[in-house]
């Protein structure tokens, strides 16, 4: 690949994330082309030294690496296909990095469309908020051809300083990872909502509840449970067994009932514990209810869990 | 309170948590009395220099501070009440610390029973696993009379090195905090189960999925969302709005459907987003769906959220 001075990068889509990405690429000394559906949004970046393209096709005609940062599956297909689309102008061996949160199914389709043109598609959805984008500190999951990923790493590092998770060859995988990240963050946010509501109704001051989160999210035990679930190793030397965990879950539900706070995650977990016990995991570590997700998905139980 | 040499502490209940607590109190130079329903379990601690009591009453007759570490509400009431119960032998101004995970309602009742005898009840449920108990590194939530809590702090620190969260005067509050902690940990475990099942079926290697958790749980953004939810400040300068969040939630459900993985937390969050939008929060930050828990609990919406 050409040196930084000769490499031209395009950013397609200048929402708050795309704008942050573009600014950081420009700041790092790359030649930059920008495109946005509403062209007025390109002004600040053009004033700062970028070129502007009229269409995704025009951007593709000039660039080696294109980063699209849009809203959903449809908006990505929209700028890729058609008369003025990116694939109509793209040059052999160019690379399109898709930074939008899209479905893994779409990533598989987009890869095929690009391969038919002899060009490269890389999944690179980003995680973060507008302020982290502006600071060049987004996180990203990258998947696709590893030799192509090697060629784009320095460009991606402009906007994801230190936060790349290489997710392998299958372009669908980075999308699964991004959705998993959102699922994880959304679950934590929902849990915050449930716990603040519960504690507020019990009149526990919010600064005390806050200490709980500060303590738990830096605790190594939180990651240790990830390993138990990952490896399906629910050994339990002297700890609380799944059967005992049921007591605590019922206490949580009862504590919510007492003050009128529904705790829907607890209902889910309750049923997962019942499922776990019904499937022979009652004497395993209490965290064994995590297996319910695999059981419900038809993933076969590990032999050792039945012993 | 008497000096360490003259202070006698009892531990009632020698499961793996109680044993760890007792060992660490003994190790720190306190005189220790132990009691357990199955008396054989006291042997190792007696060999190490503890005294053993026949009944909770006998333990109470000898001790200044009693720590009970049992299974549930019923087992705590059981050792407190009756002819051979702790309250039958307790001495004026003694302190009973209840380390069991019990309901906040039980803590309120137990406080009353102790007050009638002119003695002190402190809620001190502990968080951790047998190995952390053995290491003296449990976490605890303490609530009750603050002057009494001051008198027991050095004893509690024997088994909860550096991990005390003072939860105020109301003895119910430490129990609410402990159940909140369990709710938090259980939610994370369930989420691990869901994400590993989803990624396994998409054939994402588990070591890549693991990197996601290592990254997220050390990320300051996770705690930043706690503050947004705590303060109900869902401002959103350029970020994804709740309305936009709905797209990602539907993507998650679809990504699960594609490979046959039910994601029950996502169903819950989906409904919370719909509730949030229906209550005028659609243009707020996407994390505003956490408000659903308060809305569903009859907690009045903040004026500013409607603006």
From TrEMBL, chains A, B:
<comment type="similarity">
    <text>Belongs to the HIBADH-related family. NP60 subfamily.</text>
</comment>
<dbReference type="InterPro" id="IPR051265">
    <property type="entry name" value="HIBADH-related_NP60_sf"/>
</dbReference>
<dbReference type="InterPro" id="IPR015815">
    <property type="entry name" value="HIBADH-related"/>
</dbReference>
<feature type="domain" description="6-phosphogluconate dehydrogenase NADP-binding">
    <location>
        <begin position="9"/>
        <end position="158"/>
    </location>
</feature>
<keyword id="KW-0560">Oxidoreductase</keyword>
<feature type="active site">
    <location>
        <position position="178"/>
    </location>
</feature>
<protein>
    <recommendedName>
        <fullName>6-phosphogluconate dehydrogenase NADP-binding domain-containing protein</fullName>
    </recommendedName>
</protein>
<dbReference type="InterPro" id="IPR008927">
    <property type="entry name" value="6-PGluconate_DH-like_C_sf"/>
</dbReference>
<dbReference type="GO" id="GO:0050661">
    <property type="term" value="F:NADP binding"/>
</dbReference>
<dbReference type="InterPro" id="IPR013328">
    <property type="entry name" value="6PGD_dom2"/>
</dbReference>
<dbReference type="InterPro" id="IPR036291">
    <property type="entry name" value="NAD(P)-bd_dom_sf"/>
</dbReference>
<dbReference type="GO" id="GO:0016491">
    <property type="term" value="F:oxidoreductase activity"/>
</dbReference>
<dbReference type="InterPro" id="IPR006115">
    <property type="entry name" value="6PGDH_NADP-bd"/>
</dbReference>
<dbReference type="Pfam" id="PF03446">
    <property type="entry name" value="NAD_binding_2"/>
</dbReference>
């Amino acid at each position: 690949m050409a040196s930084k001075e000769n490499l031209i990068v395009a950013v397609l889509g200048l929402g708050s994330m795309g704008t942050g990405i573009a600014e950081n690429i420009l700041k790092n000394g790359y030649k930059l082309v920008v495109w946005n559906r509403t062209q007025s949004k390109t002004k600040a970046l053009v004033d700062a030294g970028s070129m502007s393209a009229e269409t995704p096709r025009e951007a593709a005609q000039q660039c080696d690496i294109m980063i699209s940062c849009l809203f959903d599956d449809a908006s990505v297909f929209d700028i890729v296909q058609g008369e003025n689309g990116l694939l109509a102008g793209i040059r052999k061996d160019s690379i399109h990095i898709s930074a939008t949160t899209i479905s893994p199914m779409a990533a598989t389709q987009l890869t095929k469309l690009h391969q038919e043109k002899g060009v490269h598609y890389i999944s690179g959805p980003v995680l973060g908020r507008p302020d982290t984008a502006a600071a060049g500190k987004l996180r990203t999951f990258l998947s696709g051809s590893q030799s192509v990923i090697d060629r784009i790493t320095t460009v991606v590092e402009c906007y994801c300083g230190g936060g790349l998770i290489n997710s392998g060859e299958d372009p669908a995988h980075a999308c699964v990872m991004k959705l998993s990240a959102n699922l994880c963050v959304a679950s934590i946010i929902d849990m915050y909502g449930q716990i603040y509501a519960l504690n507020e109704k019990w009149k526990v001051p919010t600064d005390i509840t806050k200490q709980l989160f500060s303590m738990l999210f830096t605790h190594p035990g939180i990651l240790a449970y990830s390993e138990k679930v990952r490896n399906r190793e629910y050994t339990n030397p002297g700890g609380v067994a799944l059967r005992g965990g049921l007591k605590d879950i019922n206490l949580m539900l009862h504590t919510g009932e007492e003050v009128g706070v529904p705790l829907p995650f607890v209902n889910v977990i309750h049923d997962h514990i019942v499922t776990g016990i019904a499937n022979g995991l009652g004497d395993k570590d209490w965290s064994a209810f995590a297996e319910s997700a695999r059981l419900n998905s038809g993933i076969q139980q590990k032999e050792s869990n039945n012993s």
